[in-house]
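step 3/5: co-fold with FE2/S2 (inorganic) cluster
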Amino acid sequence: MEIEIRARGHVRGRTARRRGVLNAIGAVCSHAGGPLDEGKLEGDCVECPWHGSRFLISDGRVRGGPATFGQPPLVVREQHGKVEVKLAHPLH
Ligand code: FES
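step 4/5: write tokens
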């Protein structure tokens, strides 16, 4: 099951449920700003629709270039039918 969301505030996320666990990573591709929230989920990776970089949905690590930097992982919490996300680590 895939869920696409936009978080309140300034964080866009790409989520996917894998093996019962809901994960999310930042949705602005680290390569050139492509929309990962429009990318396909292939196994455990999200593929960027612009140039094909692949990132692990569990923690944002790069699994295929041209991107060389990973995506920021997001903390996901499901509560009372709502999904909340926040950055796992500050960006700066
Ligand atoms: S913008 Fe995502 S791979 Fe280039």
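step 5/5: annotate
Residues 29, 31-34, 48, 50-53, 66-67 surround FE2/S2 (inorganic) cluster (CB under 6 Å).
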